[in-house]
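Fold it.
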Amino acid sequence: MSAYESLAFSYDALTYDVPYPEIAAFFERVLKRSGVEAQTVLDLACGTGSLSLLLAQKGYSVLGVDCSEEMLTVASEKSMELALPEPPFWICQKMQRLRLPYPVDAAVCSLDSVNYVTKPADLQEAFRRVFAALKPHGLFLFDINTPYKLRGLDGQVFLDETEDAYCVWRTEYSEKRRLCHYGIDLFQRDGDVWLRSQEEHTEYAYTPEELTGYLRVAGFRNIQVYGDRKLRAPREDELRIWIAAEKE
């Protein structure tokens, strides 16, 4: 089963501790530091739309793009419940096939979604597409799970549960292929029975040097590498880093 096909409908409950307000605040700090006055924002790999909706509530005009129809279904339902004056516009696309109806002032891609593009050539194409989608002087901000973190996940088992879902993650890292595989067993309550499904998620261990190189080739300049939601250089043992790049 493809990634997030079943997990989508339990995703928010199982990831209740994701700090979306802090991510949005960091995004705004980087915008301010870069001198970008953004009105239109692309939330790339938006998932169930939690960050998109938060940004829309802050007054941004948001395009939410994700390759999972199931995740976007959840995002759309959440959007209708909020009755926003200008709800996000949802688009189902892979990031390496990104094509927007209009250019945007800034783009954000969070929660290690870049790692999910496991072919470097596809990620380079995605960066070119983001560059093309930005207005002049636009900003692109994204995060990754570092190679240090992905190596450390090898052989780990994680459990997440709610009253209606039970999820087991088993991880395996291949140093040769630079891939971290997450095997997921998901049990979801359906009335009096529990339904089991399985998914396979894979992340590629990109280095900051590779990513900044891809960004430069795509046309980006003034590339900055930050620690996890900190306006400082990352430490050697940083688990997550953020990279900001500008379209001059």
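The helical segments are 11-14, 20-34, 50-57, 69-82, 120-133, 147-152, 208-218.
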